[in-house]
Design a protein that fits this description.
mainly beta
Length: 161
């Protein structure tokens, strides 16, 4: 499993495209690459759409990956004890929140070490959240691993501190 994550991370580094989010901190840069674990081909598409307030959908202003019927939106912001990692996980054109997924953020630190973080659903913010402690300068690669009722999907993101 670790070898697969390292291989996928290495390959995704070669193909990441940059996009920025309007609500992210000035130091945060972003890139996203979707994959779907249940499939050997990439059936997902990357969306670099800008989110508009008042469009009827919840947004974090972050990096967006569309995986089949699912919308994954990843954003970071400073927290008292580190960096908050937030994920909107939504389904369908109406972007209905998915509240019962098992979500893990596999973070590759700037020094290359891996740190798995379980993300818990916050009903008030309609997002999965966790905090990455510390503030080492550099680029962080994040693989979001989500399991929604047995359907597994991955989203690849990055940010800088």
């Amino acid at each position: 499993m670790k070898s697969l994550v390292i291989l996928i991370s290495s390959l995704s580094l070669l193909t990441l495209g940059a996009c920025s989010g309007s609500n992210q901190t000035a130091k945060t840069e972003s890139a996203a690459k979707p994959t779907e674990a249940a499939s050997t081909t990439q059936a997902a598409s990357t969306s670099k759409e800008s989110h508009k307030e008042g469009d009827g959908h919840d947004h974090k202003g972050g990096q967006v990956v569309e995986v089949g019927d699912y919308h994954l939106e990843f954003a970071t912001h400073k927290a008292d004890n580190g960096t908050s990692l937030d994920l909107l996980l939504q389904k369908g054109a109406a972007h209905e929140p998915v509240t019962d997924a098992k979500v893990t953020a596999q973070v590759q630190m700037p020094d290359g070490t891996q740190k798995p973080l379980e993300m818990k659903y916050d009903a008030a913010e309609k997002a999965y959240k966790t905090v990455l402690s510390g503030a080492a300068a550099g680029e962080y690669q994040v693989a979001i691993l989500a399991d929604v009722a047995g359907k597994k999907m991955n989203g690849r993101f990055s940010f800088k501190q």
